[in-house]
Amino acid sequence: MAAGCQRDNDRQQDMTMEALSDMKAPAFVFDSDEVARLTAQLANRDSIQTEPDRYTRHHYTSQHPQMLWIDRQGVGDKADTLLAWLERVETHGLSEKSFQTDLIRSDLMRMRALDFNETGNTINQVAARLEYHLTKSMMRYTQGMRYGFVNPFKLFNHLDIEKQDSTGRVVRYREVFDVHVDQPARDFLQRTANQVAHDSVAKLLADIQPASPFYRKLQDMLASSDNQQERMRIVCNMERERWRRQTPMAEQGKRIVVNIPAYHLYAYSDTGLVDMKVVCGAQKTKTPLLDSHIEWMEINPQWIIPMSILEKDVVRHAGDSTYFARNRYNIIEKATSKKMPVSQVTRQMLLSGKYRVAQESGSHNSLGRIVFRFKNKFSVFLHYTSNPGAFGRDSRAISHGCVRVERPFDLAQYVLDDPDEWLLDKMRISMGMNPETTQGKEYMRSFMAKRQDDSEEPKLVGYVPVKPHVPIYIIYQTIWPDQYGTLRTWPDVYGYDQQIGKALKPYL
User: Fold this and answer.
1) In angstroms, rounded to a whole number, what is the distance separating the alpha carbons of residues 342 and 363?
2) Beta carbons of 156 and 496 less than 8 angstroms apart
3) C-alpha to C-alpha distance for 274 and 411, rounded to whole angstroms
4) What is the rounded CA–CA span in Å between residue 93 and residue 103?
5) Which tens digits make up the pLDDT trace of 29-73?
């Protein structure tokens, strides 16, 4: 059989398109201009669903389109190479139909068998179909497997409306995704076309395959599942892995991962794991997805109330001294740093942006006793809470966007690089915890003997730098290892799997 196939291939190499034209039968007369015309016709008639589709149409409707697969020798091995990869797309949770695999396969067989006729399958019609479908599928497959079939920035940052004008037109969406992922350069598809033209297809297709071990595990899960809902969850998580980003599981050393669907924080290191429950943002104030580095901690922080919360919850209490006193809110004029009498500040003044409202530090503060700070565009951070009872709930999507951590002192010990015991005790004392060192206990005895007001609290430390900075990843994975390393499924609390599934529809 192999020898017979080789003879067929050798015979096909000898039989060029021009040689077929000598048969004089209209179905066998190869005309490169006619192929170009028919390919442009296919492009103009085809629907455009993706950016690669748009590129393919433009390529073949330009004034002098370059043929990437078909030449006067016929169609070469690079078409077979692409077809071999397309025939495995279902292992990635995708559909062969979305890549015209059947059409490509049948037309390649027709071309190799010289099976042409004048009723829709002339040599030029078959060549045009192959040229167009091979390029469209190549562009779809290459960009999707290398960068993801869904653009997460376009998807997630256009879900939640933040502001509309008087006519209902969307003025601004709320951003929730700022992860450092690879994005295709503007000329990526053009460079792909050049590689096809120069017959670098095999290397290109091999190089773009996702290589993470987690992706391989998801493929194994997909292969063994026949439950449609479970398969869809797996496919959505595979798509996340195709967004090439720094994967926390692939790193070494310290790194913190907050997985929103699990409502859990995992602080990994080379020596072990610190994990704890977390509270995340509510549906209307989702915790954003991001990566950054924890740079410092604040003990007993003030809470500067964001404008969004000010507008929603605070301004209606303008002038109400009882409300501001009960919550220990102070109004500060930004220009002078002067504390303003509540009775003198109107609703309009609070909304002007010239004043800030800050909650005094202490056990009652909404941020709790400690905040873990890291740079990000959303002004979110990790912190404790004045309402620890929330950690007992099963569904913990209730915050304004920040992440509340269950055991903040354990996390503080984790992020510090070999801290001395006196620093840790100063932090304990400042956070209202019992000291553990002799020096700390002596300090507390002296403080308690000298204080004149029962409400007075010791504050030995405020700003604590974290060096080296500790990477933090706030992720959204509905399949992810738990604290025991067991791969588990988690609920789609923000509906992101559903949105990814909709966006993947052209490929499913």
Assistant:
1) 23
2) yes
3) 7
4) 20
5) 889 999 999 999 999 999 999 999 999 999 999 988 999 999 888
How far apart CA 424 and CA 407 sit, in angstroms, is 15
Separation CA 384–CA 299 (nearest Å): 10
Q: Are strands 272-281 and 264-269 parallel, antiparallel or unpaired?
A: antiparallel
Q: Which two tokens stand for residue 29?
A: 């007369």
Nearest-10 crossing angle of helices 421-430, 408-415: 150
The tens digit of pLDDT for each residue in 250-267 reads 678 899 999 999 999 999
Rounded Cα distance between 347 and 175, Å, is 27
Convert the pLDDT of each residue in 73-97 to its tens digit: 889 899 999 999 999 999 999 999 9
Residue given tokens 């697969």 in the structure block? 69
Helix (H, G, I), strand (E, B) or coil at 459: coil
Structure tokens at 464: 């604590």
Distance of alpha carbon 379 from alpha carbon 365, whole angstroms: 17
CA distances from 273 to 43, 253, 270, 294, 486 (A): 54, 11, 8, 17, 14
**In this model, does residue 163 exceed pLDDT 80?**
yes
pLDDT in tens, 190-234: 999 999 999 889 999 999 999 899 999 999 999 999 999 999 999
Q: What is the distance between the alpha carbons of residues 414 and 306, in angstroms, rounded to a whole number?
A: 29
- What global pTM score does this model have? 0.88
Structure tokens at 216: 């391989």
Which residues are within 8 A (CB) of 499 and not within 5 positions of it... i.e. 6 or more apart? 155, 156, 159
**Residue whose entry in the numeric block shows the structure tokens 């704890």:** 276
213 preceded by a cis bond (ω within 30 of 0): no
